Amino acid sequence: MRHLRLITTFAPIAALAGCGGEPPLAASVAASADIRFEPGEVEIARGGTVTWEFAGLAHNVFFTSGSTRPDDIPDPTANATVSRTFPVAGVYDYECQIHPGMAGRVVVATPAPSSGPNTGPY
């Protein structure tokens, strides 16, 4: 019975732990040997960076949408990591032109509006 009480006490707290947080400033995407980007979609904060990790099989990255796209990663790249920074909020779709159908997405979030200055006593 004691274990059940602990679970019911902390379950609501655990459920709220991921709510309302800001997106991270960095994310990693692995270009896998089975011809896909993992994860297929990442979300970062505006000004954040995505790092693509290319293993033994060569891949590239060409951005196909987005208001101010970062530079493509045009050269076939293997055994390396390459990063791009996203200063503008929006959705950026990309693809590997070496492997048709291999695609992913970067979602760059706009920061939540501030609730205003702290007017409390602290």
User: pLDDT below 50 for ≥5 consecutive residues: which ranges?
Assistant: 1-19
Number of domains: 1
Would you state the CATH class? Answer: Mainly Beta
DSSP summary: helix tally: 1
Topology:
Blueprint: H1 2-16, E1 26-31, E2 37-38, E3 41-45, E4 48-54, E5 59-63, E6 73-77, E7 80-86, E8 90-95, E9 103-109
Parallel strand pairs: 1-4, 3-9
Antiparallel strand pairs: 1-2, 4-7, 5-6, 5-8, 8-9
Commentary on this structure:
By secondary structure, this protein is mainly beta. The N terminus is likely disordered. It contains 1 helix and 9 strands. It has a 5-stranded mixed beta sheet, with no helix packed on it. It has one domain: Sandwich (Immunoglobulin-like), CATH 2.60.40. The radius of gyration is 19 Å and the shape is elongated.
Keywords:
9 strands, 122 residues, elongated, four-stranded mixed β-sheet, five-stranded mixed β-sheet, mainly beta, single chain
Please summarize what this structure is:
The protein has 122 residues and is mainly beta. The protein contains one helix and nine strands.
